[in-house]
Amino acid sequence: MITGSVNLQISPYEAVTISTGVVALLLVVTLVLYYALKSRTIRVSDVYLSGEPESVVSRLSPSVAALYWGFMRRFAKSIYNMLISRVHTGSLHDWYKFISSWFGVLILISVVVFTVLKLAGG
Amino acid sequence: MISEIILAVVSAIVFPGLLFTVSLALFTQYIVRKASARFQSRMGPSYVGPFGVLQPFYDFWKLLRVKETVKTRFSMVRAAELLLIVGIVFPISALVFLPLSPFRISCEFDILIFFYMASVMPLVAMVMASLAMPGPYTSIGVSRLLSIITIAEPAFFASIIIPVYLSTRSSGLLMSISGYVNVYQAWERPLTALIMTLCFIAFIISLQAKAMYQPFNIPEAEQEIIAGFETEFSGPLLALVRLLHDVDLAVSILLGVYVFLAGPLPFRHLSVGGVLMLVAKYTTLTLVVTLVRSIMGRYRVEQALLQLFKYSLTPVIAAAILTLLV
Q1: Whole domain around residue A32: which residue ranges?
Q2: pTM for the complete prediction?
Q3: Could you tell me the residue ranges of all domains in chain B?
Q4: Domains held by chain A: number
Q5: Which residues of A touch B113 (CB under 8 A)?
Q6: I need a labelling partner for B288 at 20 to 30 A (CA). Which of A43, B31, B68, B110 fits?
């Protein structure tokens, strides 16, 4: 006889184990249901390219580098342009100026944090 | 022990597991379609079932049972099927952590396990399944989806984590969804209410991006990149990918109901008032998402990322800083 509900207060490790068991159970049930019910008709065609032949594209999937640079160029366009204009000028002085200014900020932050920790720690 | 196992199996398969969540996901699709149709002076689903409520199920069933799978010589249909089913199963399994479930697990930091199962896994599965059915439009869609998720996912994560921290820091299990009973206290105090408001705004906006609803529907922009990451899916595979989308949305809204709106409170779960309160809160959140979807146009990728950064990531960063001060 099953009545009411069960609330298990357990450790995170046990929780991961039990939830993984639930995933496994549901995976089996869903796979069985899906393959029992799905339509078996399959048609083979060319890749959809709005009527163009497959030769118009060099690759069907983007490389990891393309995904990275796509994101960088689209979203971080201003950062990208700033880096190109300030650092990639061809002059070593520009690169040194940029890098040293950032190092300066980092050193300043670390000095402040160290001082605060020292004061707080007595 | 045996009765507990039976209860766990029933919870996983019937309520709030597979059967309930799939029904809820299809019903959510109905609400979104019907409400957005009414916002745009259209009828929306009307003919299948009372008020057209069975239309999403009929669409799903037709894709699954009748329509053919169109594949190319580059397609990996089995891999895509398996990945999509994994993506559907993980968020459904995560419901064992919600207080809604008769067989319920709770532990410290269970929100992290829930987030991994209900938010990260569906996304990874969807991206991997799309790449298993390659095509140039698919690639562009996936690339856009990944760009948007780079901002939306951290904002969604933070918008959930901060309220859970606020409601569990003084009592109960730390960072557990079971802390939903203290959510009203967080809304009562001015400073924590401000934090909750910032998180709620970020939650709604990042949920819009996760669900790929307007204004963040650029990964599946019709007319431009056909159906984006969905282009090469057809028949049963399209049924699965749409179900995955709806399950992901339904589970995310359900999480929002507990984290921001305190679940069935002030009533108990096993009461008429509790059920009605849950339904009312769930429907309200769904209607808010639908309203935003209906009144906004589509952003370009860089616009979408900038707006997400401004109105989703910035509020949660501000909320995180305020939380450190409280």
Answers
A1: 11-39
A2: 0.85
A3: 2-323
A4: 1
A5: 12, 15-16, 19
A6: B110
